[in-house]
């Protein structure tokens, strides 16, 4: 298993800046052509790592799910100023998920879970969403909460390992620090079926090394998502088997687990983040988005775009080391492959000349 697909894939303040750009069309284009392809790469890497660790083909039961999924009419997309995007997996739409039943007696085709990488103005985090599907019979929803009560002692170490936190119920009758099984019993009694797990938020800039960590976090928590899927299939969960496989993989691949590591942030970055939050007014789209927009969201050398799986980069035509400026006229859009092909000493303007 190699993480090389993620090398030089990063997220930075220019990505955060995007959520402040007033131009809805630019915002949507940048998400579609630049942000979502990078998140998709993280998801694909995670799916490959799941295969490696657990021997599970994720896509047999799940689909890759994307928000926004730009398949609707262009017009409606463009009126929306997206504030959050995600790529992850969710249960496939099937004729029947026999583990669940609906109040109206029809078969359950859509599952209320989603396990994703989410990006917003603050940073990037993992999320396991277990939303309450309204049409589901009470006993179906109860199954998921019971799973948490019965297996809390096994799930807790996965939470520590993957930096995932269950969201806590707030109530006058339930202490904030009640043990988790009491939390879940409370949900069960009150029929509070929304049950999410939220990962650590890695603030911008997110390096490729951090991205690998994020992918690992997701994969370390995968056994819980898998249990939901198994329950939906009407099968027993396989938490024990998957945890044993994960333990074995960790023993072979990790020299001890970082429980704290880079979770703290340099003050400078924190300051930047809060500055951004204050600046909820219009901002100039970061130079990167202006370059991509001018070059029509494709590599100027080979013409590849995100539909062909290209990850777009901004390249200095004249490198900084040779006096090149950070100006729109000195930037060009290159895909990752053409960018590697063009060495740093090379000052070629690769833009195809329009006659
Ligand atoms: Zn190219």
Overview features:
single chain; 355 residues; alpha+beta; BirA Bifunctional Protein, domain 2; 2 domains; seven-stranded antiparallel beta sheet; two-stranded antiparallel ribbon; 9 strands; binds zinc ion
Task: Summarize the main sheet.
Answer: 7 strands, antiparallel
Question: Can you count the helices?
Answer: 10
- Just name the CATH architecture of the largest domain: 2-Layer Sandwich
CATH-assigned homologous superfamily of the largest domain: Protein of unknown function DUF1054
Quickly count the domains. 2
Helices and strands, in order, run as: HHEHEEEHEHEEHHHHEEH
The count of β-strands is 9
Q: Determine the CATH topology of the largest domain.
A: BirA Bifunctional Protein, domain 2
CATH class of the largest domain: Alpha Beta
Q: Note the gap between the termini.
A: 47 Å
Q: Could you describe the 3D structure shown?
A:
Helices cover 41% and strands 14% of the residues. With 355 residues, the chain is of the alpha+beta class. It has two domains: 265 residues, Protein of unknown function DUF1054 (BirA Bifunctional Protein, domain 2); 70 residues, no CATH class. Helix 4 runs antiparallel to helix 5, helix 4 packs antiparallel against helix 6 and helix 6 runs antiparallel to helix 7. Bound molecules: zinc ion. The site of zinc ion has 8 residues, from strand 9 and helix 10.
């Amino acid at each position: 298993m190699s993480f090389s697909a993620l090398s030089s894939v990063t997220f930075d303040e220019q990505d955060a800046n995007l959520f402040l750009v007033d131009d809805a069309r630019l915002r949507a284009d940048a998400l579609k052509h630049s942000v979502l392809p990078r998140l998709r790469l993280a998801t694909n890497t995670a799916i490959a790592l799941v295969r490696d660790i657990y021997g599970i083909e994720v896509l047999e039961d799940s689909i890759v799910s994307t928000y926004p999924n730009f398949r609707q009419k262009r017009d409606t997309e463009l009126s929306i100023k997206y504030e959050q995007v995600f790529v992850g997996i969710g249960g496939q739409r099937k004729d029947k998920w026999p583990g669940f039943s609906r109040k109206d007696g029809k078969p359950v085709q859509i599952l209320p879970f989603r396990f994703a990488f989410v990006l917003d103005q603050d940073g990037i985090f993992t999320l396991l969403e277990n939303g309450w599907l309204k049409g589901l019979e009470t006993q179906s929803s109860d199954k998921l909460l019971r799973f948490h009560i019965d297996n809390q002692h096994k799930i807790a170490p996965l939470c520590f390992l993957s930096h995932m936190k269950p969201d806590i119920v707030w109530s006058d009758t339930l202490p904030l620090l009640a043990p988790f099984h009491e939390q879940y019993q409370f949900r069960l009694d009150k029929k509070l079926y929304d049950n999410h797990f939220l990962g650590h938020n890695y603030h911008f800039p997110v390096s490729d090394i951090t991205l690998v960590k994020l992918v690992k976090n997701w994969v370390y928590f995968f056994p819980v998502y898998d249990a939901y899927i198994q329950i939906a299939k009407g099968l027993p969960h396989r938490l024990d088997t998957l945890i044993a496989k994960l333990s074995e993989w960790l023993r072979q691949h990790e020299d001890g687990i970082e429980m704290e590591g880079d979770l703290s942030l340099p003050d400078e970055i924190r300051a930047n983040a809060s500055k951004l939050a204050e600046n909820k007014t219009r901002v100039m789209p970061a130079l990167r988005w202006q370059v991509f927009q001018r070059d029509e969201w494709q590599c100027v050398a080979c013409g590849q775009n995100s539909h062909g799986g290209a990850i777009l980069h901004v390249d200095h035509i004249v490198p900084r080391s040779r006096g090149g400026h950070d100006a729109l006229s000195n930037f060009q859009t290159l895909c990752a492959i053409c960018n590697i092909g063009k060495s740093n000493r090379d000052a070629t303007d690769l833009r195809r000349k329009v006659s």
